[in-house]
Give the backbone structure.
Amino acid sequence: MEMFVVSGGRPLKGRVSVSGAKNAALPIMAATLLADGPVTLHNVPQLVDVATLARVLVSLGMKIHGDTSAALHFETHDDSNVTADYELVRRMRASICVLGPLLARRKRACVSLPGGCNIGHRPIDLHLKGLRAMGAEITIENGYVYAEAERLRGADIYLGGAFGSTVTGTCNIMSAAVLAEGTTRIEAAACEPEVVDLGNFLNSLGAHIQGLGTPFLTIEGVERLSGGEYRVAYDRIEAATLMIAAGLTRGVVELEQVPVADMTAVIETLTHIGLKIDQLGPLTIVDGRGLRSATDLVALPYPGIPTDVQAQMMSLMSVTPGMSVITDRVFPDRFMHASELVRMGAQIRREGPTAVVQGVEHLSGAHVMASDLRASAALVLAALAAEGETVIRRIYHLDRGYERLDDKLNSLGASIRRVDDQPVGLTTPEVPMELSKHRSSRAA
Ligand code: EPU
C-alpha cells in the first residue's frame, strides 16, 4: 500500500487541466452494454474505478481496447453472461450501473448488491422500484439482485427519496427505459450534470430522452441503439477540489477545462469566502490570496453544493476565520474526515448531519487516515496548508476517483511524495511486568 508524505505551506501557482468526470464516465461505460455496434469514448479519466468497471464489462463479454489518454473502444462480443460478480462489485458501488443496461439488453441481470460504505447508508430501493414499475421481476437472494423481464415497458416513475433523488438510480432507470416498449416518465429525476451527460450519450446512439437536466424526464423507447463516438464531460468535482486547493494555500492557479456552467453554487460560495474566480477565455483563474469570511454551507442535490465537495470545503473552512456551519443533506453521515482534520488542529464539532467549524490560525502536520475518496482529497488539501509534514494513509481511496491528483498538485508547486506505507518509527514500548501479566490473564 502507498501513502502520501506532504510538506505543507507552499502557495500553489501555475496551470493544470481538469480531467474527464468520473461520475459521468462510469454510467456511460456501463451504458455501452446497450449499443448494437462499437462505441468509442474520449476523455475517460485514468482511474482505478474506471479500470474496475472495465473489468466488470469484460466479465460481461465486452472487448475493451485503447488508451484513456486517447480513446477507449467498447464492443460486445459475447452476451451470454448476465452476472456482475461480488468480487468485482464489492470494489466499487458504481458497478450497480450495469443493472439497467443488462436487464434492458439481455433480458436478465444478476448483480451483486453493493454493500455499505464509509459515507453512510446507501440503499438501492429506488433503482429497484423503478425497474419493477417497468415490469421487471426482481428478487434478492444470497447478496445478489436477480432481475428479469422479457421486454421492459414504459411506466410513470417517481424517484424521490428521503434524501432527494438518486443519481445512479436515475442512470439505471433511464438506461433501461431507452429500450423499453412505450414511454417512460420519470419524476424527481436527478438533475446532476453527470446524468445529463449519460442522457446526451444515449441520445447520440439513437435514444429519445427529453427533459435532461430537469426533474421530469420523458423517454420514448426505441428498438435498438447504434454504436457511436462520444466525449465525456469534464469533472466539476475535481475542478472544485483544485479551486479549494488554491484557497487553502493562498495561491493563484489557472485551470483549463472547468465546467463553470455546472458550478454556480460552488463558485458563488468560494467567492463569498474570499476567493477571486475569473474567466479569461478558456482559463479559469482562481486567486486564493484574498480575505476570508466564514460561511454556512448545505450540501444538496444539484444545483446545490455537491456532497462530493463537502469534505474539501470543510478543510477550507477549518482555516477560514469565524464559525462555519456545514450540513450534508445528501449523505448526513459523511463526516469521517472531520475527526482526522481535528488531528491536524481543526476545531470541528459534529451535531447530527451538521458540523460546526471554528476557523483556526493554522493546521499542523499529523499522521492521518483517509476513509473514502473525497475525505482523502480533503486531507491532501488540508496537508497542503498545514505547517510541517503530514502523512496520509489509505490513499488508494484517492486513486479510485482522481486522475494523478498528486502529480497535478506537485506541478503547481506542492510537495507530495508517494511512498510505500511502511510503519513509521514503530517500536514496541516496554511494558512493566505486572501490566503485561494483567494483559495476558485478561486475554486468557
Ligand atoms: N438513496 C436512497 N435510495 C436509493 C438510492 C439512494 O435512499 O435507492 C439515498 C442515498 O442513501 C443518499 C441519497 O439518496 O442519501 C443520494 O444517493 P444517490 O443514489 O444519488 O448516490 P449514488 O448514485 O449512489 C452518486 C455518486 C456519488 C455522489 C452521489 C450524490 C456516482 C458513481 N456516485 O452516488 O459520488 O456522492 O451520487 O451526488 O455517480 C463520489 O464521487 O465520491 C461519490 C460518492
